[in-house]
Task: structure prediction
Amino acid sequence: MRDRDHPLSKDAARPLSGLRIVELSSYVATPLCGMTLAQLGADVIRVEPIGGAPDRTRWPLAESGTSLYWSGLNKGKRAVEVDLSAEDGRRLVADLVVGGGRRGGIVISNADRHPELTFEALRARRPDVIHVLLTGRRDGGTAVDYTVQAATGFPLLTGPEDAGQPVNGVVPAWDLAAGLYLAVGLLAAERHRVLTGEGQQVRVALEDVALATAGSLGYLAEAQLNGTSRERIGNHVYGAFGRDFATADGGRLMVVALTERHWRDLLAATGLTGVVSALAAALGVDFGAESERYRHRRVLGDLIASWFETRTLAEAEEALRATRVLWSTYRSFTELAATLPGNPLMGKVAQPGVGEHWAPGSPLVMDGEQAPPEASPEVGGHTEEVLRAELGLSAAELAELRKNGVIRTTRGRST
Result:
């Protein structure tokens, strides 16, 4: 799986080389944790039940039926297929977890139901084990990103101003944040183990991630101290001036003026400096203050919207390029896909069941080097390789496991 001769593949981009992690997971957060670490050089062994995990078929799909979703979240891992319903299969996975030498003994999971794979059971076999567990709620109860969204207030602020019902975000933000928290927690625990020789369990609750974010960004303090519920404001930026604007030819841009410099540049570009100065004098306000720009966002927005409505998208873009204003044209995924060749984040990947396409490498640039993208594994694509190399199983022992149905005789369907 590791193309060490790839022109972008340098040691600086893989500082976790030598770290070995076993991953038992599905869907977004825990696979993202594993992939983030794999892109930094860790050897991540993804363990799945016979036939593959349930998220192997999640939409969107390639024409072959291969999940583009799964393939996108599991790049650069090795895949082992084991019957987790059988005690022998679970014992085999536990052997993998507690093995791996000095930099092994690490597992990521989003379930704690198998007795042989709990933190307590693994710690009894290897005292310095690191067990990283994602739960839905702090008490161990189940939750997914969509239910966490509902429980934490954000859908009541999302969507058009006149929306009469909650609107969930389409990006699973809490899953993504949780996956990165899991990776940070794992690395912190591994550093602690290097310094002290002690293992530990790291637990992250998906709901806690959302609550922590709501608290850190002031939503919870605002509700407690002011006793008010924040209003839904559509595409306006809360507390500052920012909104979307339509152009004469049907284009649309998002424009944000966070600072006084941004605001002056936006007025100069649209020729509205004098008009807005007169409006400020009439209202007795200072639009140099971010709070006043937000309070009067509708009248200011209507003035600026009139300028955009008489320009083409190309004319608006040209005017904004000469400023410090923060802006972007709205683009579809199809339009964005056309821009991928030449983007330094992207690289060509030949994915089984999908074919060759542009995929992202790691967004982390380490000492100027970035790990390139790698293909995701086929179901059970490395089962015998891993069991031979990591557990020292012989051909006869592998044959016995196949005979008993603990591992597959042939590889399953591709990703």
